[in-house]
Amino acid sequence: MIYLDNAATTRTAPEVVEAMIPYFTEMYGNPSAIYSLGSAGKKAINEARRTIAGAVGAKPEEIYFTAGGTEADNWAVKAAAESRGAEGKHIITTKIEHHAVLHTCAYLEKKGYEVTYLDVDGDGLVDVRALKAAIRPDTILISVMFANNEIGTIEPIREIGSLAREHGILFHTDAVQAFGQIPIDVEEMNIDMLSASAHKLNGPKGTGMLYIRSDVKIRSFVHGGAQERNRRAGTENVPGIVGFAAAVRRAQRIMEEKARKERELRDYLIGRIESEIPYCRLNGHREKRLPGNANISFRFIEGESLLIMLDMRGVCASSGSACTSGSLDPSHVLLAIGLKHEEAHGSLRMTLSEENTKEELDQVVGHLKEIVQRLRDMSPLYEDFMKSRRDRT
Ligand code: PLP
User: Fold this and answer.
1) Are 132 and 163 in contact (CB under 8 A)?
2) 147 — phi, psi (to 5°)?
3) Ligand 1 atom at minimal distance to the Cα of residue 197
4) Rounded to the nearest whole angstrom, what is the distance from the C-alpha of residue 40 to the centroid of ligand 1?
């Protein structure tokens, strides 16, 4: 099997699993309990909080554990909107956010909030001047993702952060794809709230965090017990949190080397595809992109068919349909960068890890050349296109 879907999820690292096991088997006590079986869990949570805070330049008490990135996004956007609702009801986000933000904004629109969905350019970049122009006296929240999950484009977060700060507007960033892959500093970048998820960096699924700057007062997400300083009640997922911290330690340790390797592999893959398969285009910014992301549209083919045929050859990747696989809608991200419906449908996202090799990518390129040609040979659109080319010459 060749796994090229690391933006969907990653393999849980062996050192992460090892760190988690004792919290299932021996130290299973409830962290709220007084006896030492419980306090071992509490101690592990506190240590995890310190590790994760350190990784983004935050204070430990600014980290709140959640059940993943979706929950963190929901909390940040809904609670910020509610707590600032008396000052205004205008939110700014972008057309290329993950559905965890977009659908939350749609929910808020039904509750009387007004949302501006900013356009992005052909590479998926937010224009900071357009963002500035969209700010109104009643703007209470800006939510712009750190890096896009489909095309890998990295947004100008530092500039957006200073703009938001200058205007006294809360700034949330969905850093689910960026955290653990590229450096982040919430202080330097003026970030008020940041979402992250463990399973994107070789940690366990169903564990994430929301960073909330200490002077940002937003409501609790889950009401109940006093866990997470009364803001996210419920017995903590101790093994998950311990695994998250182990994944963060690993990510910090290998980040530079991992990014270097992935960039080299990514550029090799993109280069070979661009030079050996005609009628394709790279989606997303060529340089300002996540180290492991290659997203390519192949004209005249269906991404779904391509995925199935790749799967039959043991290659896992993802297509240009909405990230919830099974949906036949073209990706909102690809449409937002200006692709036509049929181009978006013919897109393939390959997201690498440092464990992939050049030999694997050579095999993938071989498969792609063959499959793309086979699908084009069956496509009436391709036939028409070739015929009109022949007629012209
Ligand atoms: N935000 C982005 C940018 C993502 O890529 C994802 C997952 O694909 C999420 C949020 C949701 O994270 P989780 O799967 O942890 O709920």
Assistant:
1) yes
2) -145, 145
3) 15
4) 30
Helix (H) or strand (E) holding 316: strand 315-316
> Which of 175, 106, 111 shows the shortest CA–CA distance to 144?
175
Query: 281 CA to middle of ligand 1, Å?
Result: 25
Q: Using a 6 Å cutoff on CB, does residue 337 contact ligand 1?
A: no
Closest residue CA from atom 4 of ligand 1: 176
Q: What are the residues whose beta carbons fall under 8 Å from the beta carbon of 256, sequence distance 6 or more?
A: none
Residue 186, CA distances (Å) to 20, 146, 183, 206, 300 in order? 27, 12, 10, 23, 43
Cα–Cα separations (whole angstroms), residue 64 to 27, 38, 158, 172, 305: 22, 19, 23, 14, 41
State how beta strands 139-143 and 170-174 pair: parallel
Active site residue 323: yes
Residue 213 near residue 186, CB atoms below 8 Å: yes
| Contact assessment for residue 89 and residue 138, using Cβ atoms and an 8 Å cutoff | yes
How would you write the pLDDT of the chain (393 residues) with one tens digit per residue? 999 999 999 999 999 999 999 999 999 999 999 999 999 999 999 999 999 999 999 999 999 999 999 999 999 999 999 999 999 999 999 999 999 999 999 999 999 999 999 999 999 999 999 999 999 999 999 999 999 999 999 999 999 999 999 999 999 999 999 999 999 999 999 999 999 999 999 999 999 999 999 999 888 899 999 999 999 999 999 999 999 999 999 999 999 999 999 999 999 999 999 999 999 999 999 999 999 999 999 999 989 999 999 999 999 999 865 544 556 788 999 999 999 998 999 999 999 999 999 999 999 999 999 999 999 999 999 999 999 989 988
Q: Cβ contacts of residue 48 below 8 Å, gap of 6+?
A: 65, 241, 242, 244, 245
**CB of 197 closer than 6 A to ligand 1?**
yes
Burial group, residue 342, by CB count within 10 angstroms (0-12, 13-18, 19+): middle
Token reading at 259: 């990014």
